[in-house]
Structure formats: structure tokens, C-alpha cells
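Could someone model flavin-adenine dinucleotide with this protein?
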Amino acid sequence: MKILTIIKRVPDTAANIKILEDGSGIDKTNLNYVTNPYDEYALETALRLKEAKGAELEVLAVSDNQDILRNALAVGADKAYMVEYADYDKLDPYNLSRIYAEVIKQKGPYDIILTGKVTIDDNSYAIGGYLAAFLGLNYVSHIVSAQFEGDELVVEKETDRGSETLSISLPAILTHERGKYEPRLPNLRGIMQAKRKPLDVLKLEDLGITITPAYEIIKLTPPPKKEGGRILESVDELVEVLKNEIKVI
Amino acid sequence: MAKTLVFLEVLDGEVRTASLEAVGVARNIIGGEVYGILIGKGVSSLKDEAARYVDKLFVSDSDELDYPYPVPFAKTIAEVMEKEGIDYFLISSTVVGREIAPLVAGLVDAISVEEVTGMESAEVIVKPVVSNKAFAHIKLLKDKKVIAVKPKAFAPAQAGDSAGEVVEITPNTDRGGLTVKHIKEKEKGEIDVTEADIVVSGGRGLGGPEKFQLLRELIDVLTQVTGLKVALGASRAAVDAGWIDHSHQVGQTGKTVSPQIYFAIGISGAIQHLAGMRTSKYIIAINKDPEAPIFKVADYGIVGDLNQVVPELIEKLKQYKKN
Ligand SMILES: Cc1cc2nc3c(=O)[nH]c(=O)nc-3n(C[C@H](O)[C@H](O)[C@H](O)COP(=O)(O)OP(=O)(O)OC[C@H]3O[C@@H](n4cnc5c(N)ncnc54)[C@H](O)[C@@H]3O)c2cc1C
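Reply:
Sure, complex below.
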């Protein structure tokens, strides 16, 4: 069995994010980069499935930096692919998915592909659905866990309807919500081992892909500024605010 | 002239308001012909009502589709789009919507954008990015466009006087390898945080699961006095403590909400929590620590013990209702 986890290198949004004066992007000086948090949950589930089935686990990223792939190898992935692309952070989800799909066609087939439900940099939920369509895979999104019951892959998801337990036949792509278990951290031994694990660097030319942008980010604007808040002295005052200022009662 | 197809999502036997908001976007911003599509078991019963919102309504009712299976839903939608020459597909950015949108986009070779909160024109959308710390204004360059609009960001369409034509279509019933084993339904009548006009959220400051009952009381009385949809939210600390289900979590790894009013009760205002609620119209914080970061983003704050403030607020709102 072969499993693939797709991960993305994103700015650490817990840090202070500044928009450039001209709105052309975010200020990259002193920016920290991390693995997209939902991809970390996807990776954790992939590791658990690998352990349960003795499967092989590969990871894939389009990036200009190997750091997040080395991390994934350090926590237990067996092999990594990096499609080297300097402007990876400007790729729209349509083209990013085309690249992933091509790698999967050339390096697969995979029984299970896992990735985060959303990438927090561009706030896109599109990767899973695109790959399901491009590759004709079975598909379920927003899962919180996945495990084998015998040979059946059973996933749980939480939706507006409630908690759902589904089974999905393979090959399938699953996108991960915040998981039921926290992603593991690399230990020293893992980090040492990761240095000897294979990490193949691919180029767009080798994949035979040319990019025609599917969208263009015209500008970034800051969220509407909040005016200075007001501390109220009593609950009576709050009721007055609800009545006269917010006007909901 | 543009042609738009809008997916009308059904939840608890009704077309979701969020879907009518998507119809509103099609009508008011994209213009042209607006079609709707209802898919699923038993949706025929909603067709007369739904047809009043659109120029043409496609109905695909099948006992096989007793769950929103993404593959057959998307294939049915893609077939209608190809047959009718439709350029825009709109859906609300709910769990179901975000699942189906990119699948449809992949099938019809469209660009898919989700969580859309604004539209400058039929080609330029606006959506929050980098954990809500910026809004991206994005020009969509592909001929076909799939747009998932965030609930509550746009005004819902109003029903017209006359109903659009209803076209029954044969559903695709290949479930795409998915089998439903079990669904534990939410408590009836509980409103999802993303769809609420008012969200009342509790954090670690509540001190235990039983205090969520107090928030539920506040929700009941707010529902009565405002007539609005009020939902229960939570911080991750409260979810991690096991006091409340994850479906209530607001924040970076929970849901993103922008209601008219957001009550943050016993929540410190960590950056990951703010990521999910800072675009709320009014933020009201109740916290005993005057230095809590939540007060920096709150429009109104009360510094005090929630165990006193919340019961008093419930009492005062009850009195208000009587008068
Ligand atoms: C990758 C990542 C993702 C995350 N995602 C999320 C997310 O999606 N959502 C989220 O919420 N968090 C998220 N977090 C966690 C976040 O960093 C905070 O830990 C969390 O939001 C804190 O929750 P809290 O405000 O309830 O608890 P605390 O920070 O402990 O705050 C409790 C507050 O209650 C107040 N209080 C205590 N007693 C009372 C009382 N009697 N009356 C009034 N006030 C009282 C205290 O003054 C304090 O301000 C994430 C963290 C990480 C690292």
C-alpha cells in the first residue's frame, strides 16, 4: 500500500502579518514559515495508517525550500518529492492542483492521498476536489480521523448535520479538518534519519507543465479597522448598547 | 449574457438561507439568467418554493442520494452546466459547499474560490486570506468560475411573484465509493455558528462544562428578544478540555464567523481565536482580566466575573422582554 501526503509551506499566521504599503503582497521580512497546520493533521493520520498497514508513506510539496519535507521525513515519512518553484506562494489552486496531479500520475499510483482541508495562506479549500476530479479518485473532505477496520477505510467527519462515520473505497483522496489527535513532533533520532531518506527534486519542465494563471491577485487590503472599544460599567449599560447602538432589541 | 447555476443546499428539510444568499449574488452582482439545482432524496417537495427564487430549477430527486455524496452531486451539476452552457456555479461555503465546489470546478475546468465575502464585479471576488489578516481582491481569469460564498456575507434573494420553470433531471447515483455507516445528528434546532446572526462563545474562563448551560440560557433569551438566529461558540481551550464539541470551535482550526454580534465570554483573545471572529460586526467581551487581549478588538467590554455578569444579563433581558 502506498500513501501520499501533500503539504504546503505557509507563513506562520500566528505571527504579525503586515501587508505591503502598495497592497502587492505581505511583507516577507522576518516572516516565519511552517507546514500548513491542516496538512500536519493529514500527515499524522497518514502516519497512523502507515503504521497500521505497514504502508509506504511519501510526501509532496511545491516549494523553494526543503524544510517542511525534511520535517515530514523526520516524523516518519519514507520519501519526499519537492517540485522546485520559486513563486509557489503565488500559484492559484487550479494550477497547484495540476502540478500535484502530474506528480501523482508519474510517481503513483497511491491508494490514499491525504492533505489539509484548507491552506491557511490563500484560504483555499480546493486541492482535494480538484485532485478527485483530475484523477478520478473517490473523495471525502473535512475528516477528523481515518482508520482501517479490516480492509475498510473508515473516516469520521463533523459537519453542520452532526458527526458522521463513513467508509470509502480506495483509491481515495481525503482532506483533513483539525484532527482528533495532535500531530507528533520530530525527535533527534528522526531528524538524523531524515537526512538519509530520499528527497527527489523535480522541475516543472520535467513534469511537462506550463502555467497559465487561473486567477490574479490584484491587491491585498487590511481587514476593516476596529475603532477603540469601550469598557461598559454595568450590565444595564450593555442592555442600553444593545438597544440604542447595535439596535437588536 | 451570463448564466449562473446555484446549488440549493437542503438542511433539516429546508433550503439553507446561505444558498439564498448565493442566489442573491447571482441576481444582484453577476446578473443574467439564474438557475437553481436541488439534489437529494425527497427534494421534490421543496421545488415549488425553491422555483420562486430562480428562472429555472433543476430537480434531481433520488432515494439513492440520502446523503450529500460529493461525487454524484458534482457530476450531476457538471452535466447540467455543460448541457446548458453555464459559466458560473455558485454554492454557499458550508462544509458541503466547500466539498462540492472544487470537484465541480475540476470537472468543468473552472477556477474555484471558496469563502468569498465580497464581489467587486462578476470577475473580481474578495475573500479573507492569511488567517483573516488580509483581504485578497482576486480577478478570476478562467471562462468558467466556481464561487463558494461565505454564509452571512451577502443579502439573501427574495422570492419572486412567479415561479421559474421546473426541470426534472435523472440523477447520477454512483456514490463514488462512499458509504454512510452512521450519523449522530446534532441536537435539533441548534444553529451552526457560521449561520448565526449572534454568536455567544465561551472559553476556559467558564471553568467547566456545566457553565455552557448558562450560555445556552443567554442564547434562549437573546433569541426571544431579538428574533435573530443565535448560536453557541467556543474557544479551543474549552473544546480541548472536552467541555463542548469541536463543531462549536471558532478560530484558526475551527470555524470562521462574521455575525452581527459576537459575545466572547471568558475568552482571552488569542491570535488563533481572533482569526475566526475578528470580522464580526460588533464584538462584546466579558472577561475578569482588564488586560485580556480580547478587549483590544472588542467594541464593547465588561470587566467582571462572568458568573455574575451573565446571569444578570439574562435577568435584565428577560425584564426587557416583559416591558
Ligand atoms: C496551531 C494552533 C491553532 C489554534 N486554533 C485555535 C482555534 O481555532 N480557536 C481557538 O479558540 N484557539 C485556538 N488555538 C489556541 C489559542 O492559542 C488559545 O490557547 C485559546 O484560544 C485559549 O482559549 P481561551 O481564551 O478560552 O482560554 P485562556 O487563554 O485560558 O483564557 C481564559 C480567559 O478567561 C478569563 N476568565 C477566567 N475566569 C473568568 C471569570 N470567572 N469571568 C470572566 N472571565 C474569566 C481569563 O481572564 C482569560 O482571559 C490554537 C493554537 C494553535 C497553536
